[in-house]
């Protein structure tokens, strides 16, 4: 069994990470009721004997003593990390695996990347090496960060180059939260653009997630609950309720519920690595099968069921409806419509009591309505994990390498250009040592080149599928 290390960077990354660890513990507790430290738990947790002083005390088998997350927590402000250390998960995190500062990055990519990157590089490396030493077979680093702030975008992408240099054989999966157009960080287009260049060059797979899409999903829950459709009810102590028990107003942007959806994405993504199934998918298979060209490593994700993930009770979806939902624009975690765009490849990660025949039948049913590139008409990768998420009979995560991600990048470029054309706020970046205006022009060129690659693929949409060459036999 392989292990993975989660690196949580910035406020957003740490809040989502905290939610992920909470859900992971609940999931393993539901499956592993005898509290035995097994391979499934070891993929993301160490078993530590806290009576042993120092760094020793790891227990490879037997009863669970004290679980420690395979995680590194990084933030240049102390607030969120301190909240975690004072909360119910405080014992899950090793204090030796934390890096914090007090000043913050001031919503400036250059401060996070150039200043804090060089200042904390050795500390970060030391903690990454220590995490790797605790693994028997380290397969993947999961980086969780946001694109709009300073620490998440700047230090988060600085990490990628460090990981590439130090652990070139270990996969780098990045979950990136993209800001909405109404983001309250004025400089977020600069931060996102500069971060995109690093993602293009140093990530193996990126799962872009749009804050606006998450907010829209939570708003739909609001409408369903208020309309009373389908006997919808909010579960007690739900993440979508306030401390007073009333449903949060739409304007308040319930970030806990939004983070919960992202955490469930990561939970389903790693399910095959943690549990057994009749058709397992290793994490390295995702990159191998879904990324045909190095730069086109952005995977659009969709989850179904969605609403119950946000702690709302509604009747479970029928199996066939679940597959249809995965390709609907309402279930995508970025604002995109994959059915009207071009697929390079698609992975379906199914959990629960589902048969391989169900999987194949639904693929055959959906194939006529989906457009795949001419040279990869059978570009499907599938997995079946027998353990469903807690509270569900089955679930589906779809990962699509699809040109529908292009509008997100075009919108980012437009927002960046509006600021950059006026050179607004540029001096905040250029006063940082190592930052030059060429950093902006190179980032813009990098994103434009990526958009052009998607344009070239979209131009082939109307082309017929390639006929395979046949062997000519001379008579």
TrEMBL record:
Cross-referenced PROSITE patterns: TUBULIN (PS00227)
SMART domains for the chain: Tubulin, Tubulin_C
Signal peptide: none
All residue ranges annotated as the Tubulin/FtsZ 2-layer sandwich domain in the record: 279-414
GO cellular component, one term: microtubule
Location of this chain's protein in the cell: Cytoplasm, Cytoskeleton
Name listed for the protein in its UniProt record: Tubulin epsilon 1
Record organism: Monodon monoceros (Narwhal)
């Amino acid at each position: 069994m392989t292990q993975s290390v989660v690196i949580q960077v910035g406020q957003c990354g740490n809040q989502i990470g905290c939610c992920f660890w909470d859900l992971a513990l609940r999931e393993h507790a539901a499956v592993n009721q005898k509290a035995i430290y097994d391979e499934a738990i070891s993929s993301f947790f160490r078993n530590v004997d806290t009576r042993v002083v120092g760094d020793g005390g790891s227990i490879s088998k037997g009863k669970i003593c004290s679980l420690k997350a395979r995680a590194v927590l990084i933030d240049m402000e102390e607030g969120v990390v301190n909240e975690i250390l004072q909360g119910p998960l405080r014992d899950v995190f090793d204090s030796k695996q934390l890096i914090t500062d007090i000043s913050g990055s001031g919503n400036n990519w250059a401060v996070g990347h150039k200043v804090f990157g060089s200042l904390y590089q050795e500390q970060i490396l030391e903690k990454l090496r220590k995490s790797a030493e605790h693994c028997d077979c380290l397969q993947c680093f999961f980086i969780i960060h946001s694109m709009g702030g300073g620490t998440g975008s700047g230090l988060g992408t600085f990490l990628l180059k460090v990981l590439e240099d130090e652990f070139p054989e270990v996969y780098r999966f990045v979950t990136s939260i993209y800001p909405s157009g109404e983001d309250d960080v004025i400089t977020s287009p600069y931060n996102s653009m500069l971060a995109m260049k690093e993602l293009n060059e140093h990530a193996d797979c990126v799962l872009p997630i749009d804050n606006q899409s998450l907010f829209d999903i939570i708003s739909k829950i609001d409408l369903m609950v208020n309309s009373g459709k389908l006997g919808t009810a909010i579960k007690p102590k739900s993440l979508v309720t306030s401390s007073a028990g009333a449903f949060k107003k739409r304007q308040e942007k319930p970030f806990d519920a939004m983070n919960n959806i992202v955490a469930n994405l990561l939970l389903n993504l790693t399910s095959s690595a943690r549990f057994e199934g009749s058709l397992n998918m290793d994490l390295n298979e995702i990159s191998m099968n879904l990324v045909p060209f190095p730069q086109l490593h952005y995977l659009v994700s969709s989850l179904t069921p969605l609403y119950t993930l946000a702690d709302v009770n509604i009747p479970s979806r029928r199996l066939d409806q679940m597959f249809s939902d995965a390709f609907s624009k309402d279930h995508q975690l970025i604002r995109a419509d994959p059915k009207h765009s071009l697929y390079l490849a698609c992975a379906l990660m199914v959990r629960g009591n589902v048969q391989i025949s169900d999987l194949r039948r639904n693929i055959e049913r959906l194939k006529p309505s989906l457009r795949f590139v001419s040279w990869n008409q059978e570009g499907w990768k599938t997995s079946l994990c027998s353990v469903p998420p807690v509270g569900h009979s089955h679930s589906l995560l779809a990962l699509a390498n699809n040109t529908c991600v292009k509008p997100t990048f075009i919108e980012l470029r437009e927002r960046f250009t509006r600021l950059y054309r006026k050179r607004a706020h540029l001096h905040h970046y250029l006063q940082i040592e190592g930052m030059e205006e060429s950093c902006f022009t190179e980032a813009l060129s990098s994103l434009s080149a990526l958009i052009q690659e998607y344009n070239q693929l979209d131009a082939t949409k109307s082309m017929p599928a390639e006929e395979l060459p046949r062997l000519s036999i001379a008579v």
